[in-house]
Amino acid sequence: MNSLSPAPSPSSKTKDLDPGSNSRKRQRSESSQSTTSSVKRSASEGPAATSIHTVMDETACAASVPDSDIDSYMMVQGEDVTVLGPSQPVATVNLTPLEKFEYIKRLRGKSMQVGETWFLVSRQWYRRWEDIGPVDNTPLVDQDGNITSSLIEGVDVEFLPEDAWNAFTTWYGTPTHTLPRSVISRGQLGQPSLELRPPRLRVLHLVETRSDQADRRPEYVTLSTKDTVELLSKQLVARLSAHSDIPYRIWKIQPGEYEGVQFPAEKLFSAGADLLEISDRTLEDSLIEFHDAFVVEFQKDGKWISDQLPPAGQLTVSEPQPLFSQDNDFFSRIAGSSQQKFQQRQTPPPTGVTPSTSFSKSKDTQITPFRSHVFSKAKVVQEPGTLGLANMGNTCFMNSALQCLAHTEELANYFLSGLYQSELNPENPLGMQGAIAEAFGSLLHRIWAKDLSATSYSPREFKIQLQRFAPQFSGYQQHDSQELVAFLLDGLHEDLNRVRKKPYVEKPDWEGGGDLELAQLARDSWQGYMRRNDSVIVDLFQGQYQSTLVCPECHKVSITFDPFMYLTLPIPIERKWAHSIRYVPWDSSKPHVEVPVEIARGATFKDLRSLLGRWMGAPAENLLTMEVFGNRFYKNLDDTVPCDDMSENDVIFCYELPCNARQSRSYKAKDDDPFIVPVFLNDLYGRATTYGYRSQSAFGHPFFAVIDREEACTVDGIYNAVVDHLQRWTRNAQDLYVWEEGQATPVDAAPVIKVGVKMEIFDLRPQSGHKDYITSLSSYNPHRLDSWESRIERTGEGVPLLKEWDALYCDFDKNMKTYFFGDEISRWEHSTWETWETFIHPEYAEAKKAALNKSSRGISIDDCLEEFTKEEKLGEDDLWYCPRCKKHQQATKKFDLWKVPDILAVHLKRFSNSRALRDKIDAFVDFPIEGFDLTHLVGERKIGKKLNDSGANLQELGIHDLDEPLIYDLYAVDEHLGGLGGGHYRAYAFNHVTGQWYHFDDSYVSRAEANQAVNTNAYLLFYKRRSNRPLGGKTLQRIEEAAQASIEDDDITPAEQQLPTPPEETSPPAFVMAQGGFSVPLSPDKAIPLSSSPLDDLPTFDQSHNDPLIQSSLLLDTSGLHSLEPEWTIDRLTSPTSSAATEGDDDYQKLSSPDGSSSRSWDDNAPASPVTSDKSPSLQPVDSHHGL
C-alpha cells in the first residue's frame, strides 16, 4: 500500500473558518471507512440543479477507478493525494531521537483549522512510536477496514497534523491503514472539528432486470457533511458510469441491505424512493445521513425506466397541510424557506414525473409538524407514545434519552398543549434561539400523535438542531446519554425561560446561626435563583442541595445552597486498580518476585510504593518504579503518576535501592548522593534494517546500579558495581568472577574465594541524556556512545566519570551472550528473566476475601444515596480557600438534599475514564419501582418540622406540605449495554395513556413489565413524585388556564382538525376501543378538557362512525375508511435479541397474509370492519355483527 499524504490546497471549506476561534476542539464523531489509493477525481462544478442531469466529462473519467471512496472524500475537500515514501527528502530525516520527540510534540500542540487534513494514529502504536516500525492503525479498524465505533482521543487514537504524519512515514516507512480526515466547522460558532466519520453512502444502479452475472461488489461514496448535494450527485454518477452526456436522475431510497450494485426497477417505489433534489445545500442541511442509499437512473433510448413502471395508486398523495394554526412555527418556517429557495432553482420535472407522485419532492426537505394533543389515562385511542426512533448511526444514546423525556407526562402535556409556543425566549443569549424547544416540541407531537400508523420515525430534524447548538453531538460517534439529557434539559430551560432580562443577583453567604437561619439562607438562595431562572424545567426537574465545607484548621463552616437538575449518585463499589508488580530486591541473594496488588482508583505510584514498602520491609522512599518496554525503561512512574494511567498489559518494575530513589519532586539533592544509573544489555552489533539504520539490539531486563562517588572515579569501580547486579539475571553468575583456591585446614578443604570480576565479558560504555532514566526507543547505535578515554581526558583523575542522567550499556558479543543468557532459539535458557515467584501478602488475600463477601450482599439505591451524602476530604488538587485562615485548605465536604423536585432524574455513575483506562461498573443496583421514599433524607422537611414545632412561620420560609411524604414512583429507565465509549442504549418507559410499560430499542418497540427495567444495565432513572395535587406548580396552572380558555373560545370545526396521513404512512388505520370514554381533540394552540362516555352505553360501530364527536377526534378518516379481511393481520416489529440487530427504519407496519405474501395496497371500496385491540402488538379482525 502506498502512503497517502494529502497536501493542503485551497478548499471551499475555508469559508467555514471562524477567525476568532483558535482552540483545538475535537468531538467524538462519526464513522469512516477503509483507505486505498486512487487517482484524483475532479471536484469541478456540475450541471444545474434539475431533476435530469448529464454525466459530465470531468467526472466520467473517475468511474474507471475501482478504488476507495475515502480518497475521493479527501480529494473533494480540496486536498491533493500524493505518495510520500521513506526515501523522499524531508527536512526531518537526520534528527536525533530527542529532536524527533520535540518535533512531534510541537506539531501536536498546534490548533486545528478548518480545511486542514489531520491523520488518525493508533494510540497503541503512538505510545511507543520509536523503533517499532511503520505506523500500524490495525487496532482502529474492523476486518473491512472501517473505523470501529468507539474511538476516544487519548485512549484509542491520537490526531496528528499532516506534517507530523509525513515525518512518521519518512522515519518509519509505509503505514498500515492510512486514515486522513478533514477538519470542518461544527455548530453555530464554527468550531473546528475532525470529521472522524464522514457519511458513507451506498450507490446503486437502476436496471430493468437484475443480472447476477453482470453485478459487482457494492459501491460507496464518502463525502463530508459540509459537501453539497450537487457534488454528491456527481460522485454517485461517477461511481457507475464512464460515459458522458447521458441524462440521469437520482433516487433516494430507504437504508437497507442491498446486494451488489444493480437495483431492480420493480422494487424502486416499494423502497420508498424519492427524487433527489439537486441543490447547493450541504448534506447536513439536507438531512442526508450516514448509511443512506441512492439509486442512479440513466436514460435509455430517450426513456426513463421508472416511467415504464405500472401506475401505483398508493403513491399519489396530496401535499401535507400545515397543522399549527399559525404559519410561523419552527418547522413551517424551515419548510417555507427551503421551498421558496428550491422553487427558484427548480426546472419542470421530466415527463412521467408529476407533482402528485410521492417522488415529486424529496421527503427529506419537507418537515410536517404535528397537532397538539393532551391525553388522559381514561381516554385511549390507539397506542400513542409507542413510536420507535430509528437509529441513524450510533444515535441510540439520543433515542433512549428522548423516549424517557417524552414519557414524562407533565412535560409532554406542556408541549402538547402548545403552551410552550407562548413561552419561547429566542432572545436569551444563554439559549438556543428557541430552536431546541421547538424541535423537541415537534418531536413530541409526532410521538404522541393519535393517528400514526408508522411504527418508527427518524428524528433527523431534531438531530440537526441538536448538533447545530451542541457540536459535540455531531456525526455518528457514540455519546453518553446522560450528557445529552443534561444538555437538553438545560437547553429547554433557557429556550423557555420566562425571565426575559436576567438581573444581577448576589449569592447570600452563611453567617452562622441555627435552623431558622439555615432555612432563611435556603429560601434566599432559591429566590435569588428564581429571579434569573423560571421555566417548565425548573417547575418539574429542579431541586436544591446543601453543601457544607469545614476547615480542618480553624473549623470555619461554609454552607451554600445550589440547584440541581438531576442527581449523580456514585455506586458504592470500591473500585480497585489491580496489577502484578515485578519487585527486584537490592540484595542479589534474595529472589525477585511478582507481587499482585490492589489499590484504590485514583491512587498514585507514591501510594503504591508505600504499600510495597510495608509489604516487603523496605523504606518506601528507597523504591523506584518504572515501566519497561522493549528492553528499555519507557516511563518514570514517579509520585505524580496515577496508577490508572497504566493499562493491564503494561510491565511495571519496582527496584529496591540502598538510597533515596528520588522519585519525589520535593527531594533536594545532596553533594554526596550516589549515582543511580540505569543499565541496559545490548548486542555488540545491531542488526541492519531496510530503513538505513541499525535495528534494536537490546535484550533482557534493564536494571539499576547505585555507584558511590569514589567508585565512579574509575572504570573498574563502575564495572564491578554493574557486575554485582548483573549476576541476578544469569544462571552462570559464578563465571562473572575470578576465583582462587584458599588455604586448606586440617578439618576443611581449601575454600574457593572470589577475588575480582572478569573484565573481558562485555564492553561497558556510557551514554548521556537519559533524563528520568528514559532511553529513546530508537535503534542502538554504538557510534553515539561516549568512550571512557574521552571522559577521563575531559574530567581528569580523581573526579567521577559519571554525571547526572547517564546510562550504561553492556555490549555482549554473540558467544558471551549465549553462554550467560542463551538466545531466542534456546528461549534464554541460561537467564532468570522469566523466573518470578509469586508473593501474596496476607493483607492482599484478606482484602480479596472481604471484597467477595461484600459483592454477594448486593447494592441498593439507598446505598448510593448514602455514598452521595457521605462526608469526604477534598483532594490535594481540589483545595478550598478558607476566608478565615486566608489560605487553601484540604477541607471536608458534605452534600445533603434540601429540596427535591416533582420529577427526579437519577444518574447512576457507572463510568470512569482516564487516559489509558476505560471502565464501567456493571454491578446490579436495586431500585424500587414504586414507593421510593426520600422523606428522611430531605433537609427542608426535617428542619421544617422542627421550626413548625417552635412556632416559626413556614409560609415566609417557603416550606409547604410538611405532612405529605416524599414518595416517588419509577416511570422510565435509560439503560446502557456494553463498555465505555461504545455499547448500546435502550429505554423502558411507562405510557401514561395506555397504563402500560414499553421497551424502546431504537425502532423496535415492545410491551414490557416494570420489573424488567430493574437490571444491571440501568443507567438513568426517572421518578415521579406522588402528590395529592397535580404536579408542575406554575406550569400546571398555565396549562389549566389554556384549557379553560379553549372551552370559552373554541371555534374549531371538525374539518379543520383532520390530520393528513404522511406520504409514507399508507397502512390502514387501526382502531382501539376507548377505555372509559373518548378523547376530544385540541385546537392547534389550545387545550380543551376531555369528555367521557359511560362504558355501559357505548354506541354501535355505525353510530360511532357518523358521530360528529368521533369525526372530529382525528380517530377516523371518513373519506377513506378501510377494512382488514379476516385472514389478514398487521404485525409490529419485535425487538431483536441483540443490539447488533437493531438496524432498519420501517415507517409502516408490515401487512402479512396467511400465505406469507405482503401488500401495502388497500381497496378504497372495501366495506368497513371494526377492529379492536386487547393491548397486544398485533391487530386482529373482529366480527362486525358484534359491533364494538
Mean pLDDT: 74
Q: Shape from CA axes?
A: globular
| Share of residues in strands | 15-25%
The biggest sheet, with number of strands, parallel, antiparallel or mixed sense and barrel status, is: 8 strands, mixed
How much helicity do the residues have? 10-25%
Helix count from the secondary structure assignment: 25
Number of strands: 49
Q: How far from one another are the termini?
A: 71 Å
Query: Which structural category do the helix and sheet elements fall into?
Result: alpha+beta
Q: Over all CA atoms, what is the radius of gyration? A: 36 Å
Poorly predicted regions: 1-51, 55-68, 79-90, 312-381, 688-695, 1051-1188
What are its keywords?
disordered C terminus; 7-stranded mixed β-sheet; 8-stranded mixed β-sheet; alpha+beta; 1188 residues; 25 helices
In terms of topology, how is this protein built?
Layout lengths: L3 E4 L45 E2 L2 H4 L8 H7 L4 E4 L13 H12 L8 E6 H4 L30 E5 H11 L7 E7 L4 E4 L5 E8 L11 E4 L6 H12 L6 E7 L8 E3 L9 E2 L17 E6 L31 H16 L42 E2 L6 H11 L2 H8 L2 H5 L11 H13 L8 E2 L2 H10 L11 H15 L19 H16 L5 H6 L1 E8 L6 E8 L2 E4 L5 E9 L8 E8 L4 H12 L6 E7 L2 E5 L14 E6 L18 E9 L14 E10 L7 H12 L10 E5 L10 E6 L5 E5 L20 H8 L11 E6 L1 H7 L16 E2 L3 H16 L1 E2 H8 L3 E2 L6 E3 L4 E3 L2 E8 L3 E7 L1 E3 L4 E3 L4 E2 L5 E2 L5 H11 L17 E11 L6 E8 L4 E6 L2 E5 L9 E8 L8 H15 L52 H6 L1 H4 L17 E3 L18 E3 L18 E2 L7 E2 L7
Parallel strand pairs: 8-11, 8-13, 14-15, 18-36, 19-23, 20-30, 24-29, 31-39
Antiparallel strand pairs: 1-3, 2-10, 4-5, 4-6, 6-7, 8-9, 10-12, 10-13, 16-17, 16-35, 19-20, 21-22, 21-23, 24-25, 26-27, 28-29, 32-35, 33-34, 36-45, 37-38, 40-41, 41-42, 41-45, 42-43, 43-44, 46-47, 48-49
Helix pairs in contact: 8-13, 11-12, 11-13
